[in-house]
Specification:
Four copies of one chain form a homotetramer. By secondary structure, chain A is α/β, with parallel strands linked by helices. Chain A contains seven helices and nine strands, in the order H-E-H-E-H-E-H-E-H-E-E-E-E-E-H-H. Chain A is globular and about 45 Å long. Chains in contact: A-B, A-C, A-D, B-C, B-D, C-D.
Chain lengths: ~250, ~250, ~250, ~250
């Protein structure tokens, strides 16, 4: 099925939720997602306009085969302790698909994922002081942005891990959310980028020991971001164009 | 009818095509739009998802009453020789509606319209050398942008008026088209801005003596821009919020 | 003396600190600036590379005559309760000078000044809840920006007035600081814009009842901003160019 | 010597001109730079405020050792037929230095260099039709930008290779030049980016068979870009900060 049909207003958007899925299987991490973060997101994001699949790091081809990516309009990414295990050729093909038009929604610790650095060119480093629970308030700084629809002017997560600035990313094309933490930090927590024909959204919340992926506002934002990141109608055609490279 | 309903996927988008409509009524200008530019655009943009009206400078309240604007989701603007006649309170209310979320598609000589300067803060000045006919090629510099859907990688207008840089505008939030002219100029001819909750698109082609508003690609871009500029679902609600100003 | 000489590395930069200067003369406001905010800034910013003057709203021509502006490279602006008293033709000429290349450093309540709205096109509205003292931490979100030199990664003001998002400004060209407030708000508190040939910096701190303009970090930022906003060497020449407007 | 001293107004800026230097040594390519492009640039850019060195691909460690990079404030890069030969660990260390604050001026075919893709995240692909000589006019689209000082409003190169859009780069932080080609293309030919603490400028002219690096305007722009890309005074200190990464 072509991107253009899947991007029409009728065909559902093909979403792949990829999860590292290591900590949830290990009791020592005390995650609050017994079936995995991917399963929690899959259940919560179900909607007639989305055709959602899941895959994980320990699946064949790390869950990101050429075929799988070719059938994906928007990829949602959660990873944390195993970033280094992602094979470079997997990173290569995810990047290639984003440049062709596939959307990418990068969650929380994905700020250190290889694919994030590959697409943005920076380290993704940030200020981190503790993973003790902190209150986080996400403030919407662009009330007309579609990713913020339905959650403004702000919403609160009672317990989250705090991230602080400086966050080493390029100046975002659009800044949607800024977070306030009870421990004194601020963070650019909702950031839009475009690379090639693909749209990228980084969204901060989601430490594995806190319940953010059960929060209605967080889920609303992720759902909005998936729809915002859908490939342009032209992307499939465009990628096939005779775009001649310089010899 | 609220903005939110008109912005849903079902209710048509309420479009107002506003035209100065002076030169078309005066044979000396030799325009190629005997019924007016607004009429040409109205006819060509007709579509089930758009509810299009027209108004002109010589209508009551200059065609832009509070009521009319309140019922408009996206305003298309063409003006040229009578910019100075627009009353300041009309400019005030158009600006207010854009800040609330109404889209604005500013065409060609609108680069010198009061409302353009009001929203952008700059002079809108540009390099102008002649209105002799020139060939113009519009190159799409962002192939995934919805405003460029269906017209890339470039399209040609055999006869147009040339505009040149420097164009005194703020750096656009997104640059969509750059024009090449046979007389040696380039121009940022498709520029996106956001002000308040409203989206603004400036699109260069459309001198009154040339046939650009009969060109399929130009019309496709204007149609795309109207849909891109539709108010956010949240705009109506947002504007009604108790946003407290500093006393 | 031309801008180009004043912008060279030898001639001092001509700075004008303009202050509304009303509240400081009225005991009811309990400001902490007995000689005026302009005097506090003048004293603190003194430096061999700056030639600093001051003027106030109650001076002839509201302290902003054509001549005065022509001799100014960077204008620093503080105003609060008398924004509406600024004459429109004064706003016109300040805008014209910014478009020609004069820098503008807009402080605190200047978010509601006419000149700020004129140059940015938005309302400048923000979320305001109280002027009770709050702790503010300013986080540097671009550590290589010259305006942040010497004050990162963050600094604290023990008592300030809190401002909150949404702040109705265009997406800044560059975002330098984000503020955290003890009362739960965040704010984009250091924002760069360019309009025409002129650079604009908005800097949030400076409520009249708090001591921010005695704070070394605040003063360092304002000093950095003044130097960053200096006119381009080309600005004077450029403004004199035969930039032909479209007839 | 620390970056901070080299960035002061007194110590010269340490510039390294790196050149692939293959085509100039091979008569079949008919380059017009018998001593190499690096030598032409070195000679022309000589100035008391610059301490310029050169290195090439066939030097030890590909001319880009850790030590060499540690002593470089701004790196100028020209490469074309041997992009693939650059070792990945060399790309790693150049990227690391840019993120720390070293400036990068990427010339012409560098749009396909590994380091360019590494920092920008995109393919750098563009539309290419021929290397037959074309006339190129570079138009300055930001007359106050320091990189354009002294060359506006436009300048002409009688013979160059034409590049066309779409150019697959992220939307530049600042766009300085747009090129017009006699063969009908336009190109964003002067583009600013920031990654980490480092500034990057891409500048289009410079095909090996044409004389652009003898052109006074081209040289002026490259000289301006070198000075614009100098490390922030804070970069050295900043990079040494205890910026704690998330574990």
């Amino acid at each position: 099925m072509s991107n253009s049909s899947s991007s029409s207003s009728k065909a559902p958007l093909r979403v792949l939720i990829w999860n590292e899925f290591r900590q949830e299987r290990d009791a020592r991490y005390q995650t609050v997602y017994p079936q995995g973060i991917h399963a929690a997101l899959h259940g919560a994001l179900t909607s007639p306009d989305l055709l959602i699949g899941v895959s994980t790091l320990d699946d064949p081809e790390q869950g990101l085969s050429e075929q799988r990516l070719a059938e994906t309009d928007v990829l949602v990414w959660w990873g944390h302790i195993a970033h280094e295990e992602i094979a470079d050729d997997v990173v290569d093909r995810v990047q290639r698909r984003v440049l062709e038009g596939m959307g990418l929604v990068a969650l929380h610790s994905a700020h250190e994922a290889k694919i994030f650095a590959r697409l943005l060119g920076t380290s993704g480093a940030l200020l981190w002081r503790t993973n003790e629970p902190r209150a986080e308030t996400l403030w919407l700084v662009n009330p007309a942005h579609p990713i913020g629809a339905g959650v403004g002017p702000s919403f609160v997560l009672e317990e989250e891990e705090a991230f602080g600035e400086w966050f080493d990313i390029p100046e975002p094309d659009e800044l949607v959310f800024v977070s306030w933490f009870s421990s004194g930090e601020v963070f650019r927590s909702g950031c839009c980028f475009q690379r090639g024909r693909g749209r990228i959204f980084y969204f901060r919340p989601g430490h594995e020991t806190f319940r953010s992926y059960y929060d209605a506002n967080v889920l609303r934002v992720i759902g909005n971001a998936i729809r915002w990141a859908r490939p342009a109608l032209e992307a499939a055609a465009g990628a096939a164009e005779d775009q001649r490279w310089r010899p």
